[in-house]
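User: Just a sanity check before I run the rest of the batch. Below are the structure tokens for the first item. I only need the designed sequence back.
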């Protein structure tokens, strides 16, 4: 079972319902788990209401967090800790076992030396927190990639189940519906490359080689990289937003309750659709980019037939295959980043927005890093 299936990150979210301040607690709170996420601004008084419908398992981490948070409230002075009825009224809405722990904790006076220790922040401590956060991110990504490979294995052995209509709908969304923006960007990239190349090559009387420049640049690098970036901002963000909304509405929990594998049902069709469509879009972007270069060539006096002949002569089968080969890896990065951030999003609209932003940043960064790695490998292999 994946980490995403086993637990959800702890989240404390402040919101306001009219004049009432609401503290929503969700996820699994454990000393060994991820760091607590905070949303909203804490008021200067005790919460008027608690929401614990999405609260999972917890250990002493949750009472400690509540104690530290509530003691910062200015209205704490209005709560008489020696009055049990007053404390029960302030903790109304929390689970019974948590209320019992909080009553015990509030009955003990706060230690001034403990407060001094908790306020001690050093650069080394912050560096450690950042390092642990990066490590947890790498470990979570590795777990999700491994679960994706296992899910593909279940699919090819006939043991994975998902709705075919979801798959074809995703193919339409990340294929046909993406053609206008891919066409526009690819055409403009071809124009730009041809304009820049023509200015330089004309100085040497060799502007016919603009066709070589545009053709090789598009099929080897620009076509697949620009298509990947477009799909990261368009499809990867859509994956994260859709799955994040399902997580916030507890639809993913409902799938698990019905005995369905949420990973196979939600992630697998999106991964397969993007693995199928991104190579197709890459070839399409290459052709449109070359046509853009051809338009500039015609404008500077290169006949289209001569331009096309020069382009076909410059592009070898190996060069044309390199961009398509990279597109499979880029598609996996976009799909996994988007689905992972959506599946691990919090239970609020703000958390879904943050997950969408993270999905786009991670997928674009992954594409650039992988393309740099491919460039180094292809150079070493002399291809």
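Assistant: Here's the designed sequence for the first item:
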């Amino acid at each position: 079972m994946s980490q995403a299936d086993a637990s959800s990150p702890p989240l404390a979210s402040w919101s306001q319902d009219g004049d009432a301040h609401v503290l929503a607690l969700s996820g699994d709170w454990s000393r060994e788990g991820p760091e607590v996420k905070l949303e909203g601004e804490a008021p200067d008084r005790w919460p008027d209401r608690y929401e614990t419908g999405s609260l999972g398992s917890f250990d002493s981490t949750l009472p400690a967090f509540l104690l530290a948070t509530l003691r910062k409230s200015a209205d704490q002075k209005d709560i008489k800790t020696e009055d049990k009825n007053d404390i029960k009224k302030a903790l109304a809405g929390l689970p019974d076992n948590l209320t019992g722990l909080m009553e015990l904790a509030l009955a003990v006076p706060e230690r001034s030396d403990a407060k001094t220790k908790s306020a001690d922040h050093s650069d080394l401590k912050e560096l450690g927190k950042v390092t642990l956060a990066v490590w947890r991110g790498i470990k979570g990504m590795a777990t999700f990639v491994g679960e994706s490979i296992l899910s593909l294995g279940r699919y090819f052995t006939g043991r994975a189940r998902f709705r075919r209509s979801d798959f074809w709908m995703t193919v339409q969304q990340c294929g046909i519906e993406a053609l206008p923006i891919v066409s526009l960007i690819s055409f403009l990239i071809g124009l730009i490359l041809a304009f820049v190349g023509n200015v330089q090559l004309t100085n040497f009387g060799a502007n016919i080689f603009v066709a070589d420049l545009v053709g090789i640049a598009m099929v080897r690098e620009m076509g697949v990289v620009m298509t990947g970036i477009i799909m990261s901002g368009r499809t990867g963000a859509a994956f994260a937003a859709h799955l994040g909304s399902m997580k916030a509405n507890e639809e993913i929990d409902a799938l698990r309750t019905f005995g369905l594998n949420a990973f196979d049902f939600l992630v697998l069709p999106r991964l397969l659709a993007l693995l199928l469509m991104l190579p197709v879009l890459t070839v399409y972007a290459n052709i449109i980019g070359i046509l853009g270069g051809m338009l500039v060539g015609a404008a500077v006096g290169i006949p289209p037939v001569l331009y096309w002949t020069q382009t076909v002569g410059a592009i070898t089968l190996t060069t044309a295959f390199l961009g398509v080969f990279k597109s499979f890896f880029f598609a996996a990065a976009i799909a996994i980043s988007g689905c992972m951030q959506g599946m691990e999003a919090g239970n609020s609209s703000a958390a879904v927005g943050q997950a969408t932003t993270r999905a786009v940043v991670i997928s674009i960064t992954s594409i650039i890093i992988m393309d740099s790695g491919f460039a180094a490998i292809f150079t070493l292999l002399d291809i």
